[in-house]
Amino acid sequence: MKKITIKDIAAKFDVSISTVSKALNDSYEISDKTKAKIQKYAKKKKYKPNFNALSLKNRRTKTIGVVIPDMLNFFFAQVFQGVEKKANENGYKIITCISNESYAKEMETMEMLSNGSIDGFIVSMSKETGMNNSVEHFKDMIQEGTPIVMFDRVAKDIDCDKVVADDFEAAIKTVKHLKNTGCKNIAFISTISDLIVGKERYKGYLKGMQDENLVVNENLVLNIQENDYKKYEEIIEPLFDNNDIDSVIASSEQSAIAAMKIAQGKGYKIPENFSVIGFANGLLSRHSSPKLTTVSQHGEIMGETAAQMLIDRLEKKDEVLPMVTKVIQTDLVERNSTKRYLELNK
Amino acid sequence: MKKITIKDIAAKFDVSISTVSKALNDSYEISDKTKAKIQKYAKKKKYKPNFNALSLKNRRTKTIGVVIPDMLNFFFAQVFQGVEKKANENGYKIITCISNESYAKEMETMEMLSNGSIDGFIVSMSKETGMNNSVEHFKDMIQEGTPIVMFDRVAKDIDCDKVVADDFEAAIKTVKHLKNTGCKNIAFISTISDLIVGKERYKGYLKGMQDENLVVNENLVLNIQENDYKKYEEIIEPLFDNNDIDSVIASSEQSAIAAMKIAQGKGYKIPENFSVIGFANGLLSRHSSPKLTTVSQHGEIMGETAAQMLIDRLEKKDEVLPMVTKVIQTDLVERNSTKRYLELNK
DNA sequence: TTGAAAGCGGTACCAG
DNA sequence: CTGGTACCGCTTTCAA
Fold first, then answer.
1. How many angstroms separate the most distant Cα atoms in chain B?
2. Which of A209, A223, B43, B275 could form a disulfide with A214 if both were Cys (CB 3.0 to 4.6 A apart)?
3. A117 contacts in B (CB within 8 Å)?
4. Residue A184 and residue A208: Cα distance in Å, rounded?
């Protein structure tokens, strides 16, 4: 029951391997009779051309390397599903590396995979990579002719295709929404201030405040470095004690939830006299009480987009296409941690 | 800057390719001088032996195929991380297929990957596969000599290595815990009654009730077929209206949370006069109010175990080892949806 | 209509 | 110590 090869089939019918190869590929060179019997036999024996032989010959593997920091992060899992779906539709396989936010693992795995295991990469940088801007390995890959598509946590200095969310615009919108629903003292809590994504959101916050003629009080900006979400509450609490705030924009689901809890602990009623908006994709937002209003990124679409961009580039290896950055819109999902705003004069 | 091959190196130094190959593999046959210059050059040029050429020659890819139903499911993501970690430690890559609970996709992808892309599979069956017991494709793979390790959603009829949680025992323990903390009318809610895992939990519930001398009231057993968790609450509500219950064991996180909400809506105080235990791994349990007491499976350990079992088998291809099933213990994580029980007479 | 042979990038045996 | 060659499984060109 071992796997059957072209050679086995050739022996069986006492023809050459080239005849078999052509017959299986339905070549016009082979008589219908021969084709028929060979194809029938191949099917019966479940013949499948050997992947490595094909890849060696064609110099392409139809395999994509996906490098993500953390699969337990709902957003990344969503993107991953999107990539897998689109890849599958196009007959591509995916090899995955979870970097665990480690530069070394990200770099080493990519180097190892660039030995002909994959045709291209889809990457979101590890925190370490992004913070130190250690992007040489990306440059190397691209130099070698291995295309990369980056998403979400992209590197400014790398010239490649990119897929990002409109974090800057989204943050502006959150401020606007809060202002429109009566908030003034808007705090900004970030757990990802080191990431470009986090910086964009912060910039959007500042711009939004300016647009709405609100004064930015630096004491209302809190950057959390701690990774353990269990400690978020104690870190956030002083913000409430030392300042007069009526709303929070948080850069992550967990910190948004933590802020809500503290506000409630301090006796605020959400959303009556306190509002919270979180950048979040996960399940917590839909199950918290009250349910959290969020800026939702379309992770799956980002994944599909990234995959499509990579595949397009792979299938047109000869043409030199300019690198593009696609911005995927986010949605402000109004749940119950903010008041409703009926924009009458639209 | 294109990738360099052995042939290129041979040309560069005007030696044969076999000399280069041996030099790179540090063979005793080659003079230190030659080795040194070749190795140095190879390093400088970042030479890496071509993966497909090696796989073709060695008839092994050091690649594992991972087939899971859903990456957005926290448990599967945990297992996946465990597999990736262990695989990586052992120099294995992983190719992933997300079946989306579809038999067709699971089967087709596995067939496609069994063309020499992977050395073995780690699989958790899709619902469809499990419900119809459509396991021919697994048999085929094994017949062909491709080993499989199944985890969690395993197939009874397939003789292969398996990793499962002690669902039966765990369910017994939940009943015991509830009884010990004063509950009597224990309802059982399942969203996965079609899966073997779900059946094991149900059996454990029955056994536990019996062990504790509690009568099983069939009206207290609710099997939810609906997939949309948003509808859980309306489906569960009648259970509370039509029966006198003081606690719930739920087979999933979402259904446990839904049950808690309804209980609270009906005026119960959790855990004072109502208790809930859920089979759950996710984040919701730690963020719900009150925090949910759970039976926690060690997903990551299950993944690592499965990967180790597969790798062991792959590295000992010649030996015929008996198939084993490993049972990974679960933990009852006591949070605040159940009362404390101080087991004094232990 | 069929077959021989080169080549994809390596490894390893055997000869010199 | 170095080189020639067969082979892994398949495609493709060229010759018959």
1. 88
2. A209
3. 51, 93
4. 12
